[in-house]
Amino acid sequence: DYRDLTDVALRRTLEPAGGLYIAESAKVITRALAAGHRPRSILVQEKWLDDVRTLAGDAPIYVVTDAVAERLTGYAVHRGVLASMHRPTLPRLDDLLSGVRRALILEDIVDHTNVGAIIRCAAGLGWDGVLLAPRAADPLYRRAVKTSMGTVFSLPWARMEDWRGGLDELKERGFTVVA
Fold first, then answer.
1. Burial (CB count <10 Å: 0-12, 13-18, 19+), residue 128
2. What is the strand order of the sheet 129-132 is part of?
3. DSSP state of 8
4. Distances from the Cα of 56 to the Cαs of 42, 139, 145, 169, in angstroms?
5. Which residues of 33-71 are buried (b: 16+ CB within 10 A; e: fewer)?
6. By the 8 A CB rule, do 156 and 128 touch?
7. pLDDT per residue over 110-165, tens digit each?
């Protein structure tokens, strides 16, 4: 689950189909657990082990050196801990729309960091949910999760299957599309 995390094309292919995502840092993992997500395993550098012992539940914990973590993942793991998490079942668009008054729509935002930052800002500004155009980046990709500081777990989001028809559907449901 942790090997070569810098290969974006590989992660886009494996994470949704493989049913996993990566959470980085004890704070983000704690937020994922609070949202009901379950860890598959935890990879931790020895100096951070005490911070994550209680987070793992019955999932295995792999303790590695800084050098092994970097060789394995392909980057320097600054926050000392990664968790491979079971990917949750996401809300259907209909379910999300029935529970929101104001939704932010991300049209083809393909940079994961930007998606994470936008979701974090949307939560801070009081938006009720986020709708993703079909080609928008995955909010559960490691960099989006990290940038959002785990906000992707608390602000509901769903993916629109049909971009143009989806906008018409929003209007039919009484939403005003502003921009």
1. middle
2. 103-106, 129-132, 157-159
3. H
4. 7, 22, 18, 41
5. beeebebbbbbbbeebeebbeebbeeeebeebeeeebee
6. yes
7. 999 999 999 999 999 999 999 999 999 999 998 899 999 999 999 999 999 888 78
The CA angle 30-96-166, to the nearest 5 degrees, is 130
Helix (H) or strand (E) holding 41: strand 39-45
The dihedral region occupied by 82, where left means phi > 0, alpha psi between -120 and 50, and beta the remainder, is beta
Q: Give the whole-angstrom CA distance, residue 159 versus residue 106.
A: 10
pLDDT tens for each residue of 48-80: 898 888 888 899 999 999 999 999 988 888 778
Sign of CA dihedral 77, 79, 82, 86: negative
Distance, in Å, from the CA atom of 68 to the CA atom of 53, rounded to the nearest integer, reads: 20
Which strands sit side by side in the sheet containing 39-45, from one edge to the other?
20-24, 81-86, 39-45, 61-64
How distant, in Å, are the alpha carbons of 105, 129, 136, 174, 177 from that of 101? 13, 8, 22, 10, 12
* Tally of CB atoms within 10 A around 24: 22
